[in-house]
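Posting here for the record, re: flavin-adenine dinucleotide.
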Amino acid sequence: MTLDPRIPDGPLDKKWESAKFKNQLVNPANKRKFDVIVVGTGLAGAAAAASLGELGYNVKAFTIHDSPRRAHSIAAQGGINAAKNYQNDGDSVHRLFYDTVKGGDFRSREANVHRLAEVSVNIIDQCVAQGVPFAREYGGLLANRSFGGAQVSRTFYARGQTGQQLLLGAYSALSRQIKAGTVTMYNRHEMLELVVVDGHARGIVTRNLLTGEISSHSAHTVLLCTGGYSNVYFLSTNGRGCNVTAGWRCHRKGAMFANPCYTQIHPTCIPQAGDHQSKLTLMSESLRNDGRVWVPKKKDETRAPKDIPESDRDYYLERIYPAFGNLVPRDIASRAAKAVCDEGYGLGQTGNAVYLDFAEAISRLGRDAVETRYGNLFEMYGRISGDDPYQTPMKIYPAPHYTMGGLWVDYNLMSTVPGLFVLGEANFSDHGANRLGASALMQGLADGYFVIPNTVCDYLAGFLNTTVDHSHAAFSDAVNDAKEKTQKMLDCKGKRTVDDLHRSLGKIMWDRCGMTRDKAGLEQAIKEIPALREEFHATVNIPGSGKDVNQTLERAGRVADFFELGELMCRDALNREESCGGHFRTEHQTEEGAAKRDDDDYMYVAAWDYNGPDTPQTLHKEILEYEVVKPSTRSYK
Ligand SMILES: Cc1cc2nc3c(=O)[nH]c(=O)nc-3n(C[C@H](O)[C@H](O)[C@H](O)COP(=O)(O)OP(=O)(O)OC[C@H]3O[C@@H](n4cnc5c(N)ncnc54)[C@H](O)[C@@H]3O)c2cc1C
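Prediction output follows.
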């Protein structure tokens, strides 16, 4: 099969305009004849459901949460990028596009990234109109700060709660449509299957998480907005409910999974304290605007940080990368932290921590200014660690955070199953092998507010005055499949808990397919994971029944999918015999220990086609072409 990204012709900066003109439209009176299912109501899903509802489509929106406000998007702290150039510091659409392509280590699709940079400016206008309380300068313009991989300040923020404020904006827009009757909201419903009729996505199967009822829903198209899969590592900065289930079940029905091994390990998280933890906490990258990262120059240093003089400190990011300093991209900052810790300079009992120090910023700006910028993050750190970051540096270490991989989509965000669109973190789209900070919120909202309303019509226009036959056997078959799988897990009555098995998988993934990878480790993982998956299905213990609220049952279904995904991630990482962005193969590094790409052999998107649970997926390649930004060795020095 040839993957066709359907990139519009013409110059890069005119492609989106030309796509909008060439795409078929659905006239306003016809929109209400179409049913649209939106799965997931985080930033991408809420934005899409609200926008399509406002346009007049009949939308049914589903979330596993009790309210769209609970989506993991709410956790986003630091900010959202946009090429407004309010700072007058040299920013432009082209620079945001360039930074993102370079930040992704030349493994993203140019046309998508340019569109993202173009619509970034509209997002801010839309959010301001909704009342999102972005921070402002003394003159009233919106304030900006910097994020990694950029030398300009283009990140809009609302203290350390940007995701929450953006989600409240999207949720308000969604609520308006629910009231208007264009959107029907299904809270506490988990998508378990995609229904495909005659090769087209025509519905989903859900389990009502309160009553256990498994039922099907039909529509002319399905939009998947179900977030990322970092929880495959068990410990991550993601909300505990984040999962791959919806995406994986679509993969099983023919949607190709792209670049699954591209995961982002975020450099500034509160280090793991022990084996019984279920969650890791992010300390936003925005903190690196003012916080300075360092380790003692002496191994096994026992002095308190305040007693270590400047001459005995190694501000290693500022030393190695003078041009970008503490704001190098995440993949680079994470590997640098790992390197100093591996060399024996790490802090504390585990040796897996470095300092993030605000003493200089507090003395320069004053405590109040630092509190205004980062108050809630400092409070969170203090509560978790017991230390006061105004008095003593934070301790941080990298942790799984974001997944650049996801379901493959074309320029219109349609997957390889016609009629199935994928938005936000759930698709592989725009970030290549490494995502720059503050660009996930941008992408989710770009997809939901601005891209999908202009592309889904092109697909739907071909089905005007057609109805979806809900009595088609594909619906009852999918319901029966979901019921059977659920019952099988309940019947197992083994000895191991879901979390115990998930933790074992997470350890394999972190050790073998984490911050660094190598051939031997990946081959080992590809042997270990299927064995553990079998053990899962033979020994998992799920108390209770499927007839009411059963969170263990919910988690079991998601972990079962993580086992299959984890194996594919390792296969993808094994296939990619190069280092790029967050994918670091130790065999492929420069003399200085930097990532060594192989553009001749690997400048492609790896899209994997499902062949059944016990047969490896087939690899398809979308060759990447760079017309405007010529690939070069990334340098932040
Ligand atoms: C701690 C933290 C801080 C971050 N800070 C920033 C930041 O400052 N700037 C930035 O740009 N990015 C940040 N990110 C990344 C960003 O928050 C996410 O990438 C983004 O919010 C994802 O949005 P989404 O809409 O794609 O998915 P989500 O917000 O994860 O929403 C997924 C939705 O899908 C639903 N769902 C999932 N599975 C199912 C299913 N099977 N059936 C039904 N519904 C389902 C959920 O209920 C939810 O509604 C941060 C991430 C983390 C973890």
